[in-house]
Structures are given as C-alpha cells and as structure tokens.
Write a structure and sequence with these properties.
Radius of gyration: 12 Å
Distance between the termini: 16 Å
Number of helices: 4
Largest sheet: none
Strand content: under 5%
Order of helices and strands: HHHH
Oligomer: single chain
Helix content: 55-70%
Length: about 60
C-alpha cells in the first residue's frame, strides 16, 4: 500500500503497522480495514467488497486522517 510505504520513511515500521492493525478500531488503528469500510459505506455508499477507485480511496483516507 502506497500510504504505508510513505509512512515508513518517517516512522518506525512497528508504528506504521499499528496504524493498519485489523484488531483495533478507532484512534489506535485509524487506517484499519474496518474503519475504511465504515467510512466507505457511510459517506460514499460503497459496501465492503466493492471496488474503491483511486479517488474514493484518497477521499476515505483523508476523512480518516
């Protein structure tokens, strides 16, 4: 994932991995797949499993930031 590769240039790898942890929701793992799916569904009407285009992914990650 492009975002994780960029982040690892500025933060230690264990810290970056925790940002994407799938076991935790909320502030501890803001970029978890659960949070991405929740924002995609509530803000863009895209159900989990459907394709998120490049611009939609960018908008979802912007909302998670």
């Amino acid at each position: 994932m492009l975002l994780a590769n960029v982040l690892r240039n500025y933060f230690p790898v264990p810290h970056v991995l925790r940002l994407f942890d799938n076991d935790v929701r909320g502030d501890a793992a803001p970029y978890s797949i659960q949070n991405v799916a929740e924002i995609g569904l509530t803000n863009y009407g895209i159900c989990p499993g459907e394709w998120y285009g490049i611009s939609t992914c960018g908008q979802v990650f912007e909302k998670l930031d």
